[in-house]
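Example 3.
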Amino acid sequence: MTDTARKLRNGVGLGARHLVYAAIAFVFVLPLWWAIVSSLRPNGEVFADIFPFTAKALLPTPFTLEAYAGVFERGFGMIIANTMLVALVTMVAGLVVNGAAGFAFAMFDFKGKRIILSLIIISFMLPFEAIALPLYTVTQQLGWLDNIAALIVPSVANGLAVFLFYQFFSQVPKDYAEAARLDGVSWINILLRIYVPLSMPTCISAALLLFIFQWEAFLWPLLAMPSQQFKVIQVGMAAFQQQYQTIWNQLFAVSVITALIPIALLLPLQRYYVQGLAGAGIKG
Amino acid sequence: MTRSRSPALLIAILLAPALVGLVVFRLYPIELAISDSFHNVLRGQQLFVGLDNYLALLTDSAFWNSLQVTLWFNLLINPIQIALALGLALLYVQQFKGVTFYRVLFLIPIGVSLPTAVIIWRIMLSQDGLVNGVIGMAGVPAQPWLTAESLALYSIIAIATWKGISYWMIFIIGGLQNISPEIYDAARIDGVKPWQRLVFITIPLLRPTLLFVLVADVSINFLLFAPIFMLTQGGPADSTNVLMYEAYKSGFVFGDMGRAMAIVVVVVAILLVIVGLQFKLLSGPKEAR
């Protein structure tokens, strides 16, 4: 008797629990869900079924892909390609540059190492937004305004990525490198043949950090590309929002495209992304 | 020994690109902001004016207003985000069938960039939008979420919180998972109540994680720009005019880079003070070791 009662109580408890969790998850998912649904509706139907609110507001009826077609007709394909280019070049160059620096810090002792390392830590403690305005002046002095270099080059060297590689490479037993050195293997080959294959998780973390950083960049591309000839996605979206305020379904389509690309990357790889970000906090 | 000889040229080649990048694009801009803030930088001309840009801020009501807005905004948003993230983490760290599914749903806002979240929420919060529709079910009249002076800042807090908390929740879940379950078992045997468990065990043991989250959250929110730029341009009636937006306006709308840089320096100085305070307050007892 008491056994059944307990089972029943557990069952009710689990049900109540699921109810609470589902309600919270609903709040998290609802905005993106509504965006997806509305991007698949004709523009005139986006606000249908909301006053009074019915569940039909959360279903893509009537269904149409015209918003996506419209978005690409307005050149959003180009904007996505631009952003991909910036993000991928930054990612590849960033892995090389920051990985090399991390390797040098981990493998060698040299004069001023501690000072340089603290400079690197300072450089990532201060969020990028804080220096965006003065960075504009630097870019102007270099003559890089409206040049794609202004979007890529300043983001390649990343203190956090250097630090991640440094931390990881320091943990690799020194014997590996020493044994290889005695066999006459060059440092570059030690880095490429031993350290890089070992550091794949760190490479993924750093690559995600660099990619997402560029994908989400807003203030900097806004300042660095005054003519907006070369538009990246976040700035393109903001401009789109101002220009086509009432083409709701296209606004939603743009948002959905912008969101789904990083989500597709992050869902399978989020563990690495979090590890990368937490790298900044680990030493604390 | 030969193996400990450091090849200087190799070190230089490995380090140079990253170091040059960090010096030119991270450290030099900080120096430049400070030096420009002592200059009158109008139309390419540079005139040393000493503290004039700062002194002008002292008597500038627009600046004081945006300082007030920024501080109020941060006083609200950071505790809200961290309390919610902690609460949700405590819920979602529990093990039961199906919890992974909810965790995946929770991750979705992380992938949605802030500008994207802003666009979606702008439409959700519009007069005919989903939020007004849902509260309409309860008989609450539609609200002008983004256009009323009394609501706009709080709407931005809601948007940034939706976007931000799952991020912080992940860190806190990580911290919670590092706490050994034996401590809780022992507490249960001693008859410690759930809320006491939270206040006397969980939060103290979570201190390093919370400190990291708090510092990172404050730095992000202190420099928040995209939602203001995209939604309200500081309005209505300057109610959302945070310091970063005021700096942007000075430099890029009114072309007064000296004033813009002075504001940037003030923002960074306040940020450093807040972050320093957080370190002192939250890591204090640990320093004793």
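The mean pLDDT of chain A is 90. DSSP finds 13 helices and no strands in chain A.
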